[in-house]
């Protein structure tokens, strides 16, 4: 059987037996849509989502064309019925694996790598944006949990990586900045802790006109004096 893998994190890619396969734009969007859904998608729904700016008849024709132009490996890539479409059961999807990490974060470097990746960057279709918004919040929570778990295990290096990934995802998220300040202090780097705090405070003031909370300020109050 052919091993099929769809990558959605960091950009779209289809691999057949670890070899990248070229996919035309319409088929690429179709595979991405099915890879994001756990259940079969009705054909009219898929056509309307993928080709929203055309007639129902034209969208249906575009869907049929995209299905015809898909690669036909021995392992089913898409299971097609008269009414629905669903991704083949044996097709691996990196986003689904990342969602499992987000639901139950385990203290592994692989989890940090997957959780810090953006979902289909550069895609602005509404059905992608809705998933991207959910993924952003899920990964932020998971990265902070991971950082705490790494720190409790004494692995400050990966604890720092997880917290930094959360800050890069949401530069105004105070809890992530607070974790980084605490890690710098625990590592005996007070100057770096102050720089982290001041960088966050400057950005918060510039973008929202707000001040950091008392909780993070107390961590560096004596150092600022």
Automatic annotation (TrEMBL):
Q: Which domain of life is it from?
A: Bacteria
| Gene3D superfamilies found in the cross-reference section | Tetratricopeptide repeat domain, Winged helix-like DNA-binding domain superfamily/Winged helix DNA-binding domain
**Which InterPro entries does this chain map to?**
AfsR-DnrI-RedD_regulator, BTAD, TPR-like_helical_dom_sf, WH-like_DNA-bd_sf
Q: Where is the Bacterial transcriptional activator domain?
A: 93-224
Q: What is this protein called?
A: Bacterial transcriptional activator domain-containing protein
């Amino acid at each position: 059987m052919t091993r099929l893998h769809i990558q959605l994190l960091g950009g779209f890619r289809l691999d057949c037996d670890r070899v990248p396969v070229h996919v035309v734009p319409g088929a690429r969007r179709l595979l991405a849509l099915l890879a994001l859904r756990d259940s079969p998608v009705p054909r009219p729904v898929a056509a309307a989502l993928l080709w929203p700016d055309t007639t129902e008849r034209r969208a249906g024709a575009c869907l049929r064309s995209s299905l015809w132009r898909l690669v036909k490996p021995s392992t089913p890539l898409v299971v097609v019925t008269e009414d629905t479409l669903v991704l083949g059961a044996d097709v691996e999807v990196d986003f689904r694996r990342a969602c499992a990490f987000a639901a139950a974060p385990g203290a592994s470097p692989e989890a940090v790598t997957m959780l810090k990746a953006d979902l289909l960057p550069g895609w602005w279709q509404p059905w992608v944006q809705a998933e991207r918004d959910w993924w952003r919040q899920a990964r932020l929570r998971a990265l902070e949990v991971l950082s705490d778990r790494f720190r409790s295990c004494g692995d400050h290096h990966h604890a720092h990586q997880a917290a930094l990934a959360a800050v890069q995802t949401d530069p105004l998220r105070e809890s992530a900045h607070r974790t980084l300040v605490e890690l710098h202090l625990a590592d005996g780097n007070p100057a770096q802790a102050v720089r982290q705090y001041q960088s966050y405070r400057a950005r918060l003031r510039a973008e929202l006109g707000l001040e950091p909370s008392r909780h993070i300020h107390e961590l560096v109050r004596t150092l600022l004096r």
